[in-house]
Amino acid sequence: MSNFIKKVLVLCVACAASIACKQNGDSTTNYADISVGDEMIAELTAPPFVPKPVGDRPAKKLIVNMEIKEIEGEMADGVKYVYWTFGGSVPGSFIRTRVGDEVQFTLKNHPDNKLPHNIDLHAVTGPGGGAASSLVAPGHEKTFNFKCINPGLYVYHCATAPVGMHIANGMYGLILVEPEGGLPPVDKEYYVMQGDFYTKGKNGEPGMQPFDMTKAVDEHPDYVVFNGKVGALTGDKALTAKVGETVRIYMGNGGPNLVSSFHVIGEIFDRVHIEGGDAINKNVQTTLIPAGGSAIVEFKVDVPGTFILVDHSIFRAFNKGALGMLKVEGAENAKIYSGTTQEGIYHPEGGTIQTMPKSGNGKEVVVNKTLDQQIADGKNIYGRTCFACHQSEGQGIPGAFPPLAKSDFLNADPNRAVNAVLHGLSGEITVNGKKFNSVMTSQNLTDQEISDVLTYVYNSWGNNKTKVTPEMVKTQRAKPAPKAKDMHE
Ligand SMILES: [Cu+2]
Prior knowledge:
By secondary structure, the chain is of the alpha+beta class. The chain has helices at residues 3-23, 131-134, 163-168, 213-218, 314-319, 371-390, 408-412, 414-423, 447-458, 470-478, 484-487; strands spanning 39-41, 44-45, 61-76, 79-86, 94-98, 102-109, 120-121, 141-147, 152-157, 172-178, 188-197, 207-208, 223-226, 239-242, 246-255, 260-265, 269-273, 280-284, 286-289, 293-300, 305-311, 323-329, 425-431, 434-440. The strands form five sheets. Strands 1, 3, 4, 6, 8 and 12 form a six-stranded mixed sheet that branches. Helix 6 (371-390) packs across helix 9. The longest helix is centred in the N-terminal third of the chain and has 21 residues, at 3-23. The protein is elongated, with a radius of gyration of 27 Å. Copper (II) ion (CU) is lined by residues 84, 117, 158, 160, 166, 171.
């Protein structure tokens, strides 16, 4: 073999090897050795927003200035809590970097704070993820440097003893390390992080609520929420998108205890960066997010509507606050989803499902119930149909489900209430001075059942004691369903 041919062969083998490396995605690049260009001050954002994508910018020396603030906030309507925060929000400010960036991180502890804090960034390769170098007393600041050598979405958190308590009070956030050239562009990007909270009083108990160490150790949270509080992502604070857009959610879980079964009701994740790393799973319904971990989920929104973000450990969503909303506007697409096109009577067989609510069109035995009978039967119906959203004492969930207790909307017009249960209710309404803009689906109940449940509601929790009769429901059922707009006037 001539020398020339040998050389060509060697070259070819080398070429093929390098192509193979690129194709299977092994990061052969040693990002520790990338030299950085000029300095740049990092843009930091409060949730649910994220800084601008890195695009194809070269690696830089990135200056991050973050200030710790201990601040009073609201966990739920009337429930106060002192949060410890990175940058004034829970989760803390979003940090966006790229592989090869050299981060100069300055952590400031506001002089009004009471405690020392530090930061452990999971994106850091080094002892304590920076914690050892960043312990800082109130009124002081500490600077340390690290190089981003692994792309991915990473959690950061405080790691000052008692570590669990600092995290439980809201000291966590996300740092994104984008790959070379950046993540593929999308239309909307959001920042959501789950956390569990432990308060002296039980869920909903008003006033200032101190942290409860015993409940935290027992892992019995009173609140499980997205972005630090009940209703942070509902009503007019809902995430938004337009039909046809692609949405990317940087989803983290601060814990301190629970893992999250993240799901968006009515959507399927087209792509999930599992655990915030390189591996991509496709067509996912629910993705597991470990405490101290993350995922990047991406999906195209094809039809309009309100899509509910939940931890599918579902009592957390409907009873502890882990519920957010994505409102999608745009044209309907009947090919993908066409709503109710037919309604029929389904006769279930078998003993276990015979307690299902009957259809309103079935034959009913008419009995003249007393007020007390109606209330007793109505309470039962409430427990199996309305409770999940409007809650046990009709208190609702701020920003998501309006109260039925002392509801001015309810008390003003029984026929309107009947129609809400008969036909469902959507669009903006105001209940006791608070705006709601969500969807209640129609409830598949008979005239008697609707009159019973509403009579129960009207005769509970300080409402005006209206007795709703089956005849009133029958009259409304006979009329065409009112347009959403008429319901709100
Ligand atoms: Cu701390």
